[in-house]
Specification:
This is 1-acyl-sn-glycerol-3-phosphate acyltransferase. The chain is of the alpha/beta class. The chain is built from nine helices and ten strands. The strands form two sheets. Strands 1, 2, 3, 4, 5, 7, 8 and 9 form an eight-stranded mixed β-sheet that branches. It has a two-stranded parallel ribbon with strand order 6-10.
């Protein structure tokens, strides 16, 4: 079982890492403004269903109560909105809490909104004990926490998944130890878009995959449990692993030569760019 919070691996969050991530507070807090959620809901409904063609598969798999980690793939900045769209079709609507990087909550109007919609900043490369304590408190109180286990936005082809960070498994095992007999579940969510760079009437599919019971791994030795849970979550999220660096993935998505290929010399040893 996992008991030492000081040995935490990187925990994935929402958005890209930047030097500003180091400025995340030692003990972040999340706040949900319920009046704001209900105020922006009509705008959300019109915007999402007008701009996108959204299909939600198996919303009944979303737990109506109890502690749960939602673990979606991360393809665009619209992903969070798509999660709420799925929740609207679930048996019961739930308020979500999100891990995000500090620079996301520091961005003007966007930051103001997401801070009040349940997001809280964390240094994804080296989470502080205070940040991990807050994650544990959220789950111990029976709430839903969103962690993007890939750790960044990757514009991959359907069925592909970027190698997952181990932090999601590590945190879930730690919390399961806190909860004792109460089960913690991880719900893998596969987000797929018809276009890597979204445009008007792009298709979006939110597939809620079968939940994973964290207690099934809790009796394994720590490293084995983390590895097994991470591997099972990765298999659930994608059929193929794409471990290319993000700049290469983004270049391919734009139809450009990847950076490493663009700098490669010609086959005869000459560099055509010279």
């Amino acid at each position: 079982m996992i008991q030492n919070a000081s040995e935490s691996p990187a925990v994935a969050g929402n958005g890209s890492r930047s030097p500003m991530s180091a400025a995340a507070p030692e003990t972040p807090r999340s706040h949900v403004s319920r009046w704001l959620i209900w105020a922006v809901w009509p705008i959300h409904w019109v915007l999402v269903r007008t701009y996108f063609r959204v299909r939600v598969l198996h919303p009944e798999r979303l737990p109506s109560e109890g502690p749960v980690i939602l673990a979606p793939t991360h393809r665009t900045r619209w992903d969070t909105i798509m999660l709420y769209e799925a929740l609207c079709r679930a048996p019961k609507f739930r308020i979500l809490r999100f891990l995000t990087s500090h620079d996301e909550v520091a961005r003007g109007v966007q930051g103001w909104f997401i801070r009040r919609l349940g997001a809280f900043p964390i240094n994804t490369a080296r989470p502080t004990p205070g940040a991990l304590k807050h994650c544990r408190e959220i789950l111990q109180s029976g709430q839903a926490l969103v962690i993007f286990p890939e750790g960044n936005i990757f514009r991959l082809a359907p069925g592909e998944v970027h190698p997952l960070k181990p932090g999601t498994a590590w945190l879930s095992l730690l919390v399961q130890n806190d909860l004792g007999e109460e089960p913690l579940t991880i719900v893998p969510i596969r987000l797929t878009y018809s276009d890597r760079f979204l445009r008007y009437r792009s298709r979006a599919e939110v597939e809620i995959l079968p939940p994973i019971r964290v207690a099934d791994y809790a009796e394994l030795p720590r490293k084995e449990a983390i590895a097994a849970l991470t591997a099972d979550l990765q298999r659930a999220l994608g059929d193929r692993v794409n471990d290319a660096p993000r700049p290469v993935i983004d270049a391919i998505a734009r139809g450009e030569a990847p950076p490493a290929m663009a700098a490669a010399p010609a086959a005869d040893g000459r560099n055509d760019a010279a």
